[in-house]
Design goal:
It is built from 4 helices and no strands. With 122 residues, the chain is mainly α.
Length: 122
C-alpha cells in the first residue's frame, strides 16, 4: 500500500491516506473467502474503514472547534474499530496475511495520528 505524498511539502495528505486505507481494505475484502462470518465481519470492516476518512473530511469542514474535536474522535474510534475487524476475520490462506498486516499497521498509525491531533487540539 502506498501512501499519497505531496511532492512539494513532503508531508502526507491525511485525506488521501485515509482514502487509500479504505480502498486497500476493499481490495483485500474482495479476495477473502465467502463464509457467513467473514461476509458479516467484512461488511463492518468496510464501513469502519470508510468512516475514518469521511469523518476526517467532516472535521476539516467543522463549524466549531468542538465539532472538529468530535469528528477527529470519531475518526480515531473508527480506525480502532477497523483494527478490531481486521483481527477478527479468520483467514487460512497465507497469501492474504501480509496485506492484513499492512492494513493493521496503517489502521494503528491512523489511530495514533488522530490521537495526536486530539492532544494538540486541547
Amino acid at each position: 500500500m502506498t501512501i499519497a505524498q505531496n511532492p512539494n511539502t513532503k508531508q502526507y495528505d491525511l485525506e488521501d491516506r485515509t482514502l487509500l486505507f479504505a480502498r486497500g481494505v476493499r481490495v483485500w475484502v474482495k479476495s477473502l473467502p465467502r463464509t457467513l462470518s467473514i461476509i458479516e465481519d467484512a461488511k463492518q470492516l468496510v464501513r469502519s474503514s470508510g468512516s475514518v476518512g469521511a469523518n476526517y473530511i467532516e472535521a476539516n469542514e467543522a463549524l466549531s472547534k468542538k465539532d472538529f474535536v468530535m469528528r477527529i474522535m470519531i475518526s480515531r474510534k473508527e480506525a480502532k474499530e477497523s483494527e478490531y475487524w481486521l483481527k477478527l476475520i479468520e483467514i487460512e490462506d497465507s497469501s492474504l496475511k501480509p496485506m492484513r498486516l499492512k492494513l493493521l499497521q496503517e489502521a494503528g498509525e491512523l489511530r495514533k495520528i488522530f490521537g495526536a491531533i486530539l492532544e494538540k487540539s486541547k
